[in-house]
Amino acid sequence: MATSPRNLSVSSQDASTQCCVGARFVITRSEYTQTDPVLSTPVPQPVKTFTDAGTQVELISESPSGANPGPSGHSSHVKDDKKKISEGIDPVSQPADSNKFDKKKQESEANINTDSKPKKLTLFEQVYPSDEESPNDPPFSPSAVNDDDDDEEYKFDMTDNAGSSSDDTDYELDSEEHPERKFLVFESCLKLLLKFCSKCGGTIFESTETTSGSMFSVKMLCVNNHLTSWNSQPMIKNIAAGNLLSSAAILFSGNTFSRIAQFASFLNLKFFSHTTFYNIQNKYLFPVVNKAWKEERSSVLDEVKSNGPVNLIGDGRCDSPGHNAKYCTYTMMTDEGKVAAMNVVQVTEVTSSNAMEKEGFERCIQDLAREEVTIKRIATDRHISISSTMKKDHGEIDHQYDVWHLSKWVTKQLSKKAKVKGCEDLLPWIRSVSNHMWWCSATCDGNAQVLKEKWKSVLFHVTNKHKWNGYTHFHECCHPRLTSAQIRKKKWLKPDTPAYIALEEVVLNKKILKDIEKLTEFCHTGELEVYHSEYLKYCPKREHFSHQGMVARAQLTALDHNANCGRKQAVVQSGPRAGQARYKVSFPKAQKQWVAKPIKEKKSYAHVMVLMDTVANACETGEVEIEPEARHLPKNISGAAPPSKQELVRKHRSRFNR
Prior knowledge:
658 residues, 38% helix, five-stranded mixed sheet, single chain, elongated
């Protein structure tokens, strides 16, 4: 639309409206005079203006009193400057009243001499500072702006700090390492920006739109024959940055491509294909995660070796419930709670699913031996194959059992016997017997004989007999003397009753008496059980992954765990309970009673930000370390080549066909 040369001052709303019309605008800056709110002195301030070939739109705000408060003002007006233009006076750079300006200047100098105490900033002013330039910044000269129509670079500074919410501020603080934000942009809104040429402001009459995954590209031709192109994302080598970083975010957050692709489909959001994701995953993501885990493991082992012989806890985790698992991940953790070794075993490498845990255990021992780590003690569950391996091949290492696993077995056996007719009186004692095993392990001082005598003493206690003969080290209960009321309240067992005989069968079980000797160091793998729960985020048991995917997700779990190991309990930040430890109330299904659980501090994901940067750098430089597979695994677990699809379809029969 042709316009005659003129200067027009309009409000901010008018300027944004005209910008939508599509005239070519460039932000320029000039200066006006504003009274400093602290020192009450006139300070030159910049004015944001939009200019095209013949129109100048100036953003002006005016306070109710008539004084211009600058960019932070909340009211605007339309000012007619035709008279001043005809007189040759620049309404932007020239003050309205020079005498009034001099008078204010004198008053401000007097205020400086009389009141040197600056005004205290409010919380709002501290969080949302005004758009005033810093006194240390050089003055911005209007002549430095190039308004040449052939200029292809346009910088728009439309940020309004006063309009930010507290949530936005928190998000920006959490995203300092990645200052560039990303937005969801609707197609209708995007096309409003692509109606006019960015070079001359002319109307676009021909455009070609293409997409590459999540990236939108357009080539435009205007009425003045200017051919321009625009991409919604930067390119890293030949890969759209959004495709690369989105793929990394899917893996590093523990998600799967199918779930995120379905989310994008429901939103009608343009997304890349599964082929693009798996290509990026194999070429960049897996090597980056593997390198990060190697560096983390090296750091942990260096710390471990500096402290001398190490105590470890180990346990295996299968990828699916039941006895038909395909993968087993065996993990070893230090006493400090950091993962020191881990190995993923596929069922085709061993004879059966039950043999995978032993294989993973032996591989972890070998990996630590290659790193010259001296192992003093290992605590595991009661896996028979691992116990046999430790006895035959690693006799120099002290092998301990996890108290929780043994206590769980005792509870299971007692619960089973308490359901038998005549043994109902055993039910109230099950929890006490389980706690008694924990107490025996914690107070035996490493003496297996003392541990056995304390464990068998429960048979005296349940009959209300608290002193006895016949033992070498332990002759009486350690609890305080019971009152008459406590004795009457307890449901004591009578000797030779079915309930007592059932308890005796469990307590004096030969397997229990043999295994209880490996509880002398009071070891438990509770930290590993928590780790396995965390594993479900990255590798859920209802999802199938390739061997490389299982290894990478196991490494991501270990990196996440080690980065947040040793978190303290959270405390109340404000209010009358400030400084007190935080708890949450829950009702566990297993315990069937209300309990209070401590709340820990928030987790840190700084290591994920490092991984994201490493992926972008690896793609840009092409320096990717892809290691060959240590073991050549078959493509499937069948062990035989699949028959043709046509043959399988011909043999297919359904029981539901009549």
